[in-house]
Amino acid sequence: MKAKTEESIALGLRLKEARNKTGLNQAEFAEKIGVARDTISRAEVGAQSPTEKLLRKITEVHGIDFVWLLTGDTSSREKEEYDTLKEKYENQVKTITEQKATIAALEKTITILASQLRGSSHDERGS
Predict the structure, then answer these.
(1) pTM for the structure as a whole
(2) CB-based contact 49:2 (threshold 8 Å)
(3) pLDDT digits over 14-71, tens only?
(4) Which DSSP state fits 25?
(5) Residues 99-111, buried b or exposed e (16+ Cβ, 10 A)?
(6) Please, are residues 9 and 28 in contact by the beta-carbon 8 Å criterion?
(7) Other CB atoms within 10 Å distance of the CB of residue 69
């Protein structure tokens, strides 16, 4: 077995943090990427460094930022979070705008219907 290094231990800690955020145990996490639970277990304690191919698979399947997982650099992670929040905000603004337009159309329809009802009740009384 390869000796643990500071780098492999740090990578393992980030991998464990990422796995914990998914809410999966090691076996479930490993199954989703097609490896044995022991592979994840050894990687999390820094006893085995995952290959780049495995790290990319982990990031793709579990939606984890590759740069953060590999280096611990949060700048791309923060940008990704910002972009996600910005997209959600823009979608909410679009939804609110559409809802306002629907409300305005409904108010116009109600006004027209009320006017027609008033007109028909005047016609009935006048006849």
Answers:
(1) 0.57
(2) yes
(3) 999 999 999 999 999 999 999 999 999 999 999 998 999 999 999 999 988 888 898 8
(4) -
(5) eeeeeeeeeeeee
(6) no
(7) 21
